[in-house]
Write a structure and sequence with these properties.
Number of helices: 6
Strand order of the largest sheet: 1-16-17-15-12-9-10-11
Order of helices and strands: EEEEEEEEHEHEHEHEEEHEHEE
Shape: globular
Structural class: alpha/beta
Radius of gyration: 19 Å
Distance between the termini: 18 Å
Largest sheet: 8 strands, mixed
Length: 289
């Protein structure tokens, strides 16, 4: 497992009874996690001294139960990047801390290149991966269908003092955008993709990752440059194993560009137990290794 263990402002303190006990800088949150199927003793006093706890609703969504004064927004740092944290209606905070292993990976790849690197970040969310690429010197195109998420990503760039770096912020349907990029002849040296497991389009179209992932990667292959660097595919879909994603990148990318493919779970170290909580999967194609 690839472990995000370089955090200072984030800490997964404990995990038990379907919940995470987390520190986001100075704020302690308790959030649900369906993968935590074990029940262990909650010896840490912070379980009873958190700022807020998210409760799921049987009708979908949920709400935050606030125990102490909780800011509407605060910031955490990862290396020299600054991410704004905002507790949201669906338990999220705007950062998936386990993804730091992938931010480190792309940063190293970009910094090791002597020429300019162009990166496409699809389903870019609040821009943590985008900022990592920008900070390493890449020119980035950030695409997400949510106007609010793209605005949040812009705010993170301003907070990180890199808003003047070359970047395009686009509110758009990722598939339609890639189709237009193919027609325009635009190419990218690196692609990062974190597609949703399930969703509905504006006209009621149903999106299921397992059914549409192959065609999506096949589409994106057409906007890769002649000598691309990397392709990163993230998934939080339990029915889509790392090995399946690795095979998919193998048949679509390795067969055309050479290089190598790999995959693994990504996870977070749990302070109180010394164990690692799995938090999704990543498959990577890379040309140089």
């Amino acid at each position: 497992m690839r472990i995000a263990e370089n955090w200072k402002d984030y800490e997964l303190i404990d995990a038990s009874d379907g919940e995470r006990l987390e520190r986001w800088k100075d704020i302690i949150l308790i959030r649900p996690d369906p993968q935590i199927i074990w029940s262990t003793d909650k010896k840490n006093p912070l379980w009873k001294n958190a700022h807020a706890r998210y409760h799921r609703s049987n009708k979908g969504g949920g709400n935050w139960q606030v125990y102490k004064k909780l800011p509407d927004q605060w910031s955490i740092n990862y290396n020299n990047l600054v991410f704004n944290i905002k507790p949201m209606g669906f338990k999220h905070t705007g950062v998936f801390p386990e993804q730091a292993v992938n931010w480190d990976f792309v940063s190293e790849k970009i910094k090791n290149e002597n020429s300019k690197v162009k990166v496409l970040n699809l389903f870019g969310y609040t821009g943590c991966a985008t900022l990592s690429c920008m900070n390493a010197g890449a020119e980035v195109c950030h695409v997400d269908a949510s106007k609010g998420m793209v605005q949040w990503a812009k705010e993170n760039a301003v907070s990180s003092k890199i808003a003047d770096r070359p970047v395009r912020w686009l509110v758009d349907d990722c598939i339609k955008f890639v189709q237009r990029e193919i027609r325009r002849g635009n190419k990218y040296d690196g692609i990062i993709m974190d597609p949703p497991s399930y969703g509905r389009g504006p006209n009621g179209e149903v999106w299921k990752l397992e059914e549409q992932l192959y065609s999506l990667v096949e589409l994106c292959r057409q906007v890769m440059s002649d000598n691309p660097l990397f392709f990163i595919l993230n998934s939080y879909t339990t029915g889509l194993s790392p090995a399946v994603m690795e095979y998919l990148l193998g048949v679509l990318l390795k067969s055309k560009f050479g290089g190598k493919v790999s995959s693994d779970e990504i996870g977070l170290p749990v302070t109180d137990t010394g164990l690692v909580l799995p938090c999704g999967s990543t498959a990577i194609w890379e040309s140089k290794y």
